[in-house]
C-alpha cells in the first residue's frame, strides 16, 4: 500500500498532495503512516489482536 496519504496536524484534513494544507494552508502536514513513530505503539494492540484472531482461525 502506498503511503501517500498525509494529514494536517492543525485542522485534521487529509491530503494526497505535497506542500501546505489546502484547507488551512498550514505546513504541519505529515505522513499518516510514518515508518517509525509513536503511532506504532498505538496500533500495536490492534495488530496483536488481529494476529491472535488469525492464529485462532488457522487452528479451526
Ligand atoms: Zn490544515
Describe the structure in your own words.
A three-stranded antiparallel β-sheet has the order 2-1-3, with no helix packed on it. The protein is of the alpha+beta class and 60 residues long. It is rod-shaped and about 50 Å long. The two termini are 29 Å apart. It contains one helix and three strands. The protein has one domain: Rubrerythrin, domain 2. The mean pLDDT is 81. The chain has one helix at residues 39-59; strands spanning 6-8, 14-15, 29-31. It binds zinc ion. The site of zinc ion has 8 residues, from loops.
User: What CATH architecture do you see?
Assistant: Single Sheet
Uncertain residue ranges: none
Number of strands: 3
Integer tally of domains? 1
In CATH's first tier, which class applies?
Mainly Beta
Distance between the termini: 29 Å
What would the average pLDDT be, to the nearest integer? 81
Give the percentage of residues in beta strands.
Answer: 5-15%
Q: Could you say what the CATH topology is called?
A: Rubrerythrin, domain 2
